[in-house]
Amino acid sequence: MNNKGFTTRLIHADRLINQPESGAVHQATNNSVLFEFKRAQELVDVFQGKQTGHVYSRSSSSSTVALQNILNNLEGGAGAVTFATGMAAITATMLSLFKAGDHLILSRFLFGNTRSLTETMESLGISLSFVDVTDLTKVEKALQVNTKAVFLETIANPVTQVADLTAIGRWCTANQLLFIIDTTMTPPNLFDAKSVLASLTISSLTKYIAGHGNVLGGAVVDCGTFDWSKFDNILDIYRGAAVAQWGLTQIRKRGLRDMGGTLAPDSAHAISVGLETLVLRTQRICDNALRLARYLQSHPKIAKVYYPGLADHPQHARAKELFKGFGGILSLDLADGIDPIAFLDQLKLVICATHLGDTRTLALPVASTIYFESSAEQRKQMGVNDNMIRMSIGIEDFEDLVSDFDQAFSHF
Predict the structure, then answer these.
(1) CA 218 to chain centre
(2) What does the pLDDT read at residue 124?
(3) Do residues 220 and 83 lie in contact, with contact meaning Cβ atoms separated by under 8 Å?
(4) Among 53, 60, 129, 232, which residue's CB has the most CB atoms within a 10 Å radius?
(5) What number of CA atoms fall less than 13 Å from residue 144's CA on the CB side?
(6) Which band of pLDDT confidence, cut at 50, 70 and 90, is reported for residue 1?
(7) Residue 66's closest CA among 38, 37, 34, 25?
(8) Could you report the per-residue pLDDT of 295-323, keeping only the tens digit for each?
(9) What pLDDT was estimated at residue 362?
(10) pLDDT tens across 55-71, in order?
(11) pTM, rounded to two decimals
(12) Burial 53-85, CB ≥16 within 10 A → b, else e
């Protein structure tokens, strides 16, 4: 199937990769917590990593492994681990791979919840430098002797800054640093993480991958580009398997098994089914978002529109080179005198909600919600203004979206 198109591979992945029983096209949902072994030595061998298998569903099950196989295949990686949420995936990765005394370079545009997690990391002795990742020179200046990794997002939420992924990937490789990318905004049909030498990708499966606002999930994929033998934080007990698996093994053991953010079997199934329409959904979403951005850009009651697909976006050329679509996140600053909360109350079709990647168009006031815990100075550094509205564009008929905005603007 590797010579087939992305969508063809995607919709047949569960059937061909996991080979469900009885000719089923989907892996059956396995809700068993425990797994029987006829010979005690087999249980011992699985526990010690000498044999593959499931010992307890907090660590793995056939349902989660089936989804992991699909995600890894789409990324062309060395393996994947799934989690209950995207934040669980980020937390498990950070706290299982890094320790007190390490230094990380992070995007200063990180999403609010991720930024909140970094405060916990600092309290545990991990030092952090927040830099403008749209500029490689800013990243280079942050390098320290104890730097272990660079962590950033492909497209920042909500101001849509696009990191210099290609240059940073090359720099990380030259300096033997982990390059960890949150790809939530750009699923694998829009962005090839291996092309920029990413070491690990982390994503919230809740968003575009699942796509329908009905299930939570997260994942880490090892892209197979990093030499884990050069990473001294891998514990000796996890160095026995193939070197390419050292990182994921430690994430799986210390991050999933020990921290317990396990993806439920029913959730794994729902995500794999939602995943089948990924290409169709994101094509429509990207088309709607670009058309809506152009419409809003010329509107007299809009001060500024933030969308990588617009020609005047600071990283438009970069986004065009990196991505096969500009994504579904679109933010705007309302003109002076228009209160974002009052404006949102006038929208009838667009849903006021905190979520991304849904089939429905969603919107919220940024400063007073997802960035409420950030200081005014932090919001300024990230480019978040008090009158900013973030939208996640859906798959509705474009004319209906425009009509909804037109009627909402008529009240101001």
Answers:
(1) 8
(2) 97
(3) yes
(4) 60
(5) 15
(6) low
(7) 25
(8) 999 999 999 999 999 999 999 999 999 99
(9) 98
(10) 777 887 888 999 999 99
(11) 0.94
(12) ebbebebbbbbbbbbbbbbbbbbebbbbbbbbb
**Apex 110 CA angle, 104 and 112, nearest 5:** 125
Nearest alpha carbon to residue 273 among 82, 27, 31:
27
Q: Are 301 and 412 in contact (CB under 8 A)?
A: yes
Q: Cα–Cα distance between 134 and 131 in angstroms, integer?
A: 9
Residue type, 239: R
Q: Minimal CA–CA distance to 89: which of 187, 222, 196? A: 222
Amino acid occupying residue 207: K
